[in-house]
């Protein structure tokens, strides 16, 4: 049943039906029109008195309400300089038994909002550094690439030896759980020294590395590949991952090694630093 309520704040709805719309191929159309700038409402009500209302106003906006509570609203942003040209506000819960297809970008309103899958809160990407175009915030700025590869990473041959590089990440929701992921590259004459990662000066991960752990060094050279620096085989993209609970809304990530050699003899680099929060 379609029930039209003529309230004082809404002027009379003009219902235009019929042959006027038959020029649309294989389609029929119902137009609910009103004077410019005035809202139009369609109310669907069941026998128990529960209702769903679709309201469209003259400012390129609409909302769907259930029993006087907004479930879904749409507003077109006037300022075209905004990142989100179109904004969807979900006040209630939007459910679908079918695939939800989004043609444009899907934005989370703020880092305090969460995504759930089967009642489980999902990790969200908070920050990502791949060093292709930006190394902002890092205490050391040296970058490298190997051979003909266009991939750029922080550090590398003759750059990073026995040092610690740091970056502070700010703006986290309070008491967030944080997952840190990155790849570390080992170059040249490592003979069991340590690489490590720290949060606010506390070691969260460490790994010893030797370029050859076989009895015959020539066997390592035959099986390995030297991509950067000396002829010694290198190890690329060793994965690192660890999780901690942030104390406050910021933390300092530090990555380093205890190498005592010249950085042109043994070195390292990092790439694809990913910060996830939950």
TrEMBL record:
Keywords of the record, alphabetical order, are: Membrane, Transmembrane
What's the protein here called? Transmembrane protein, putative
Q: Which PANTHER family match?
A: CALCIUM/CALMODULIN-BINDING MEMBRANE PROTEIN PCM4-RELATED, CHROMOSOME UNDETERMINED SCAFFOLD_1, WHOLE GENOME SHOTGUN SEQUENCE
Organism of origin: Tetrahymena thermophila (strain SB210)
